[in-house]
């Protein structure tokens, strides 16, 4: 009974203390009703003369399409503060799906805009990043029909690369890793307006945080292949007998073997693709397996040519390394890397690369 | 005090003096019956309490044999002994030596025969009071178990247990509790299975209980448990459940006048066990067991978590759900926490009303409840649909584990307030507080949270899963063998 | 049958595990001495080996007097002077708990930006922890069983969902910048190993197979560290080196179907571990004070300790600079090594000497 009494007294004190705490919490007024929050779904940033123009898509429960708000400020956060001042609502960034940066921001350097998305407590590192072909404002103000293009649709376009093999998808954390990490250059999908609709048109390549060039969809596929992110897509080639043949990629991968010879690095890239024929222009010959070697050869040549073109465009012309070759050398040839990491971009211009492509056509569909 | 002393004193050999005492005690109570007659020339009387006895049994089993018997003894003592040994046809007869025993027997539905010149009396078990017929308990229905539940008379309840456990080691120990009500209470345990220390502690706890009346089993619970959020005393109305628990080394406490039997020690995990679990096949029983765990968490935490997430942590909710909730809450005038509390209180009011409303009015109550809450309040924009859905789900889930309804109903409100004021931190800290409370509890030196913590792997066969009887039957779990138990073995109960 | 007031070896090491994992959850490049957090995997292995050695003084002390805790043995060895040792340990338990608590508070202020004032949440944690300390060791130990289940489920869910985020290119070669970070990491783990001090207090209150549980715990802890470090580095990559709380950032990436932004799991696990640590440390403070001034003083010490922690963590320890000044490695590491290793050695030697002296006197 004595033990029970002791427990009772202790519990009573604890309950009183709990009341005090709850009362303090109540007095602090920290509760925010959902209706007092601004659900941000997409943020677009454009550089202006004296700061930034931020275009924001906000979801509202009473409407199916997002609401567009545009604010100016010296920095992104300052602009968002102006938005809060205007609406009186607390912004909720946690559901933000995309960040679209204007091309000018890319040309001036993205670091000054990225810090907010990395540092701010509510901003999530898994938000998708896009570079606008023109301005982010263009993307956010475009109406398809009567409604603005929803940020989730744009995010889906980027993620669609898993199926179509044309587009990369870059999150904030991926971009920052490529930027801050040794031996890699950042990249992100390019979004633009094509025939009055928003579409992903290629991949923007950066050196450090500055935009350099854009890869077209075929070149973007090579980027996906070499970085082992390709999981689907179609290859189209033409044979004399069958006409145009479309082969679906079942599986695509690349083995990159860096080596050091006479204190100079070289890369051997072996690309493999397993495909199946999806359609041909000549149905009668579709199942003729004697045509498979010809088809494989044609696809291999095509892929090889595109790979070499992509490597030239990125490594040679822009000294950018979106494929992460430097990082791989860092992991596998650490001693050499430590000596030469400071001038890796100079090595890129003259780095010998051999490319071998092997395509297998496994079935006629 | 004087009365007490007189009650303890032995009978006088004068029948008149003895009768004077009884008449003083009962003070002309209209149900106190005195049937005076003579055995030869010797005055005799049969005392009884009308309403408790079967008059035909007295007439045929006691009076007639006595009056027909050739009793040749001259003294009262000899006559009564002859009657006791040769004349009567009753099976249940007890010799009583003092007034206290006689009073106790009279109150228990015995008839007491007193003969002039005799210093002892004989009590005959001739109970014939009316009682409710044996029915299935409404609070503990079973799909595959028996349909019998305990009733109010102690003796019948004892017989129901005895019928199911035909073991001479099954003991029933009688106690009288309640200064004024003098309620008979029986401790039921299985010698050899129970730890004597547990029986001793229970006996001591009950004897030390200072109560005027014991009108329900619940009166004894505070004296048997440590006191915490969850009770360490179980209640059952089913004889099969009680037998199962007694076989596991527990003590059952049967209280006269109530169909609820108390079971001690009672552990937290037992709240999720029901008789049906053991009658169904293992895979289904395991499924329902986990359903109960889930229902318990939903019933206790869901409203609080819902309020916390919407108010403090909307980032955890997927966007479509967030939009729906936002739309619903935008039109309501109250903050979400207030809404949730009001809804729960309204539900509890309706539940209480439903329990006590006369059957003829129950339809009206249902209609009012459904219309007021379900239809009007939502369409008038006073409460939000999602909140109502959460409360409804919570309410139904609470009935999946009916034994825990009381703590769930209170904890639910506590967690709503904690979640509404402190967010998920509040829920977590409240949860830790409750965990601490139940972890510090012991049920007769057996950890209340065993076998989860302290962990007993072998005991998980009836906690995480409901193993087959082939496994359960091999090594039955005895409560005193639970991990962390400090129960001493050995000694007599 | 369980002896009065004793906990099982399993419960003791469950407590030990849960109170240790909050070390991992709060590591960052600043305290780890560099941005190559992968090297902490090697630190974990070194820590595993050192754990087996540095626990020996406490183990030998326990083996010599299995039913006496460290204070009782020091009282026997030093007489009244043993009281000083009780004060030293009481101060240490408050100090080290202040270290963990202030880290938590910094996290709440900088990373979460709670709508509720941080002081309210930290006070609530302290109230619940003090409640646990009042209820005693058995209650804390039993709660740890539940917390282990929840933590295991939460961490496994987190790690499984993060599996798809692991990228080979995110890893940096081990010892990339030399062994310095490995050494720093080992010292960091050692400095936070208040368990060396806790063990000699709790071993006499424990029953069961201690040796094999200890080994199991040690290996399990090391494996946990390694898995967490590999997952952090594999999912976050170089970004991990720039985060104040990289494990939290990693949890923010976790998603499984409709469940996204699972950093709440991480925070919940941390809070539960912190609560257990605080409750245990306050309980140990009360043990020390009770040894000197009786049970009631011990109970008052729980409240006093909680108030001191609340005041300290909300005033001079409310900033990163304050925390770095008070809880720098140069202070914490010696404090832990002295109280956890050196003092038990000194007490052990003193007790051996005393026993020898006593035997000599008896022989004479």
What does the secondary structure layout of this molecule look like, with pairings?
The complex is a heterotrimer of chains A (365), B (493) and C (364).
Chain A: H1 2-28, E1 37-48, E2 51-59, E3 67-73, H2 76-87, E4 90-92, E5 98-101, H3 103-108, H4 111-119, E6 128-132, H5 136-141, E7 143-144, E8 147-148, H6 151-159, H7 161-164, E9 170-171, H8 172-180, E10 187-194, E11 197-207, E12 210-215, H9 217-226, E13 234-239, E14 243-261, E15 264-280, H10 292-318, H11 325-332, H12 334-340, H13 344-350, E16 353-363
Parallel strand pairs in A: 1-4, 1-5, 5-6, 6-10, 15-16
Antiparallel strand pairs in A: 1-2, 2-3, 6-9, 7-8, 10-11, 11-12, 13-14, 14-15
Helix pairs in contact in A: 9-10, 10-13, 11-12
Chain B: H1 2-8, H2 15-26, E1 32-39, E2 42-49, H3 55-68, H4 76-87, E3 93-96, H5 99-107, E4 110-115, E5 121-125, H6 154-164, E6 170-177, E7 183-190, H7 196-207, H8 221-224, E8 234-236, H9 239-247, E9 251-255, E10 261-264, H10 275-279, H11 282-311, H12 319-330, H13 336-356, H14 362-379, H15 385-398, H16 405-422, H17 424-439, E11 442-443, E12 446-447, H18 469-472
Antiparallel strand pairs in B: 1-2, 2-4, 3-5, 4-5, 6-7, 7-9, 8-10, 9-10, 11-12
Helix pairs in contact in B: 1-5, 6-9, 11-15, 11-16, 13-14, 13-15, 13-16, 16-17
Chain C: E1 7-8, H1 9-25, H2 29-32, H3 39-54, H4 56-64, H5 70-78, H6 82-112, H7 118-135, H8 137-162, H9 180-191, H10 195-202, E2 206-207, H11 210-236, H12 246-253, E3 255-256, E4 259-260, H13 263-293, H14 295-314, H15 320-326, H16 329-363
Parallel strand pairs in C: 1-2
Antiparallel strand pairs in C: 3-4
Helix pairs in contact in C: 1-8, 1-11, 1-13, 3-9, 3-11, 4-10, 4-16, 5-6, 5-16, 6-13, 6-14, 6-16, 7-13, 7-14, 8-13, 9-16, 10-16, 11-12, 12-13, 13-14
Radius of gyration of chain B over all CA atoms, rounded:
29 Å
* Oligomer type: heterotrimer
Specify the structural class of chain C. Answer: mainly alpha
Major sheet details of chain C: 2 strands, parallel
Strand order of the largest sheet of chain C: 1-2
CATH superfamily of chain C: Amino acid/polyamine transporter I
Order of helices and strands of chain B: HHEEHHEHEEHEEHHEHEEHHHHHHHHEEH
Total individual domains of chain C: 1
Gross morphology of chain B: elongated
The separation of the N and C termini of chain C measures 43 Å
The helicity of chain B comes to 40-55%
Q: Which percent band covers the strand fraction of chain B?
A: 5-15%
């Amino acid at each position: 009974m004595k033990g029970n009494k002791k427990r009772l007294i202790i519990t009573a004190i604890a309950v009183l203390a709990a009341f005090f705490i709850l009362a303090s919490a109540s007095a602090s007024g920290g509760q925010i009703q959902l209706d007092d929050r601004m659900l941000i779904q997409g943020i677009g940033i454009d550089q202006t003369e004296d700061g930034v123009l931020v275009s924001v898509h906000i979801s509202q429960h009473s409407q199916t399409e997002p609401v567009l708000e545009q604010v100016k400020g010296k920095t992104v956060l300052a602009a968002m503060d102006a938005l809060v001042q205007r609406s009186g609502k607390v912004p909720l960034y946690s559901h933000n799906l995309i960040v679209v940066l204007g091309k000018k921001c890319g040309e001036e350097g993205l670091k000054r805009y990225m810090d907010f998305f990395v540092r701010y407590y509510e901003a999530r590192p898994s938000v998708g990043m896009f570079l606008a072909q023109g301005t982010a404002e263009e993307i956010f103000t475009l109406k398809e029909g009567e409604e603005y293009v929803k940020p989730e649709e744009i995010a889906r376009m980027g993620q669609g690369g898993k199926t179509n093999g044309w587009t990369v998808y870059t999150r904030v954390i991926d971009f920052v890793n490529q930027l801050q990490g040794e031996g890699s250059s950042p990249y992100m999908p390019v979004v633009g307006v094509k025939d009055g609709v928003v579409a992903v048109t290629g991949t923007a390549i950066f050196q450090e945080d500055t935009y350099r060039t854009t890869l077209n969809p075929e070149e973007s596929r090579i980027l996906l292949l070499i970085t082992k992110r390709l999981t689907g897509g179609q290859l189209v080639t033409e044979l004399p007998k069958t006409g145009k043949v479309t082969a679906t990629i079942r599986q695509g991968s690349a083995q990159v073997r860096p080596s050091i010879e006479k204190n100079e690095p070289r890369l051997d890239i072996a690309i493999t693709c397993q495909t199946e024929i999806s359609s041909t222009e000549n149905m009668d010959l579709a199942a003729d397996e004697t045509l498979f070697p010809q088809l494989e050869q044609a696809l291999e040549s095509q892929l090889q040519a595109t790979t070499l073109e992509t490597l030239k465009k990125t490594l040679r012309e822009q000294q950018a390394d979106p494929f992460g070759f430097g990082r791989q050398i860092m992991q596998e040839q650490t001693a050499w890397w430590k000596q030469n990491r400071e001038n890796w971009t100079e090595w890129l211009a003259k780095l010998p690369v051999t490319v071998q492509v092997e395509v297998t056509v496994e079935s006629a569909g | 005090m004087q009365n007490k002393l007189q009650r303890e004193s032995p009978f006088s050999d004068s029948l008149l003096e003895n009768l004077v005492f009884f008449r003083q005690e009962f003070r002309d109570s209209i149900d106190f019956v005195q049937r005076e007659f003579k055995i030869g020339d010797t005055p005799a009387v049969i005392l009884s309490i009308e309403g408790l006895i079967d008059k035909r049994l007295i007439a045929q089993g006691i009076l007639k044999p006595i009056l027909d018997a050739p009793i040749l003894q001259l003294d009262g003592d000899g006559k009564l002994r002859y009657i006791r040994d040769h004349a009567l046809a009753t099976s249940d007869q007890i010799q009583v030596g003092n007034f206290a025993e006689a009073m106790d027997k009279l109150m228990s539905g015995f008839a007491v025969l007193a003969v002039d010149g005799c210093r002892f009396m004989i009590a005959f078990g001739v109970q014939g009071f009316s009682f409710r017929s044996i029915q299935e308990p409404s609070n503990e229905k079973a799909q595959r178990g028996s349909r019998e539940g305990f009733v109010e008379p102690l003796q019948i309840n004892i017989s129901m247990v005895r019928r199911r456990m035909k073991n001479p080691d099954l003991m029933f120990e009688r106690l009288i509790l309640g200064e004024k009500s003098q309620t008979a209470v029986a401790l039921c345990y299985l010698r050899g299975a129970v730890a004597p220390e547990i029986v001793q502690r229970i006996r001591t706890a009950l004897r030390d209980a200072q109560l005027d009346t014991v009108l329900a089993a619940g009166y004894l619970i505070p004296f048997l448990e440590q006191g915490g959020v969850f009770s360490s005393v179980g209640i059952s109305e089913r004889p099969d459940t009680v037998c199962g628990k007694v076989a596991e080394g527990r003590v059952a406490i049967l209280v006269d006048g109530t169909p609820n039997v108390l079971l001690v020690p009672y552990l937290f995990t037992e709240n999720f066990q029901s008789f049906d679990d053991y009658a169904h096949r293992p895979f289904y029983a395991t499924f329902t067991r986990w359903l109960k765990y889930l229902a318990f968490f939903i019933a206790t935490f869901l409203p609080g978590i819902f309020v916390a997430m919407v108010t403090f942590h909307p980032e955890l909710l997927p966007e479509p759900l967030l939009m729906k909730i936002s739309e619903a809450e935008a039109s309501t005038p109250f903050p979400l926490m207030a809404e949730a509390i009001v809804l729960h209180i309204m539900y509890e009011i309706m539940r209480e009303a439903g329990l006590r409303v006369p059957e003829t009015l129950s339809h009206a109550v249902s209609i009012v409840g459904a219309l007021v809450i379900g239809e009007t309040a939502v369409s008038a924009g006073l409460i939000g649909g999602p909140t109502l859905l959460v409360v409804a789900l919570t309410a139904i889930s609470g009935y999946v584990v009916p034994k825990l309804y009381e703590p769930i109903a209170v904890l639910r409100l506590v967690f709503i307030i904690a979640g509404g004021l402190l967010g998920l931190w509040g829920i977590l800290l409240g949860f830790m507080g409750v965990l601490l409370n139940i972890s510090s509890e012991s049920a007769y030196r057996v950890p209340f949270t065993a076998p989860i913590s302290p962990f007993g792997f072998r005991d998980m066969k009836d906690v995480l899963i409901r193993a087959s009887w082939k496994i359960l039957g091999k090594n039955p779990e005895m409560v005193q063998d639970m991990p962390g138990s400090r129960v001493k073995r050995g000694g007599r109960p | 049958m369980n002896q009065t007031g004793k906990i099982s070896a399993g419960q003791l090491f469950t407590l030990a595990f849960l109170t240790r994992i909050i070390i991992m959850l709060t590591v960052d490049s600043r305290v780890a001495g560099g941005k190559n957090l992968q090297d902490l995997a090697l630190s974990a292995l070194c820590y595993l080996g050192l754990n087996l050695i540095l626990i020996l003084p406490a183990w030998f002390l326990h083996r010599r007097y299995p039913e006496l805790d460290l204070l009782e043995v020091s009282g026997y060895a030093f007489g009244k002077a043993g009281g000083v040792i009780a004060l030293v340990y009481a101060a240490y338990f408050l100090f080290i708990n202040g270290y963990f608590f202030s880290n938590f508070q910094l996290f709440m202020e900088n990373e979460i930006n709670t709508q509720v004032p941080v002081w309210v949440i930290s006070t609530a944690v302290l109230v619940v922890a003090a409640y646990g300390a009042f209820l005693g060791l058995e209650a804390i130990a039993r709660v740890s069983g539940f917390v282990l289940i929840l933590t295991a489920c939460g961490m496994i869910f987190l790690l499984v969902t993060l599996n798809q985020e692991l990228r080979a290119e995110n890893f940096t070669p081990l010892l990339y910048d030399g062994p310095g970070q490995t050494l720093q990491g080992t010292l960091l783990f050692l400095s936070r190993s208040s368990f060396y001090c806790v063990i000699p207090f709790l071993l006499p209150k424990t029953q069961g197979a201690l040796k094999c549980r200890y080994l199991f715990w040690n290996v399990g802890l090391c494996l946990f560290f390694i898995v967490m470090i590999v997952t952090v580095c594999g999912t976050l990559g170089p970004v991990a080196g720039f985060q104040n709380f990289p494990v939290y950032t990693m949890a923010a990436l976790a998603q499984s179907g409709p469940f996204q932004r699972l950093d709440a799991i991480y925070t919940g696990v941390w809070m539960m571990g912190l609560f257990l640590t605080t409750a245990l440390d306050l309980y140990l403070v009360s043990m020390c004070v009770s040894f000197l001034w009786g049970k009631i003083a011990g109970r008052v010490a729980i409240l006093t300790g909680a108030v001191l922690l609340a005041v300290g963590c909300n005033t001079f320890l409310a900033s990163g600079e304050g925390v770095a000044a008070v809880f720098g490695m140069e202070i914490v590491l010696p404090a832990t090594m002295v109280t956890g290793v050196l003092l038990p050695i000194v007490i052990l030697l003193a007790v051996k000497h005393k026993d020898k002296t006593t035997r000599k006197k008896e022989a004479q």
